[in-house]
Protein: SCO2 protein
Organism: Semnornis frantzii
Amino acid sequence: WLYLKEEKERRQRARRQEELRALALGQGDFQLVDHTGRARRKSDFLGHWVLLYFGFTHCPDVCPEELEKLGRVVELLEQENSQKGAHKGVLPPIQPLFITVDPERDSVDALARYVRDFHPRLLGLTGSAEAVRAAGRAYRVYAQAGPPDASGEYLVDHSIILYLLGPDGLLLDYYGRSKSEEQIARSVRRHMDTYQPLPM
């Protein structure tokens, strides 16, 4: 019975991985600049777990809420590690990333000021409009700037999703606004515990 149960779970994981691969989400590289001015590619994060969010620094409420949630997920996983200490089962660290959908306003300096309000390891990424659009396309991110107001300010309507990338750089899961930080942390933990690289 245990063998059949494990086999069923293995088949379900394999089917989910094939579905994600078929979607071709996030499989391309990106070429951006982080909030310290360092050039970054997606391949720089190979071997690391990544939680990724697309947003913009002028967002009045949704992006700050989602970045707070992202940071809290990372903290929950870190707390679990510190409680386990050197015992077996310590989870690998996870890298939080924030990619702007508004590169016209979100310069390196603007991102540096913005990300310091969130998790200390959060990296903000920006670049040319073309490079940012290419990164967004790889994850099928919707982003559309609205009309400017009298002062020239505008909002950007965009997808609200957290993406989980495995150490091979491929998308393993994604989480909408309705998922709590505890639910996301449990899901990430489960992915870490059962992770097997996809055969390429």
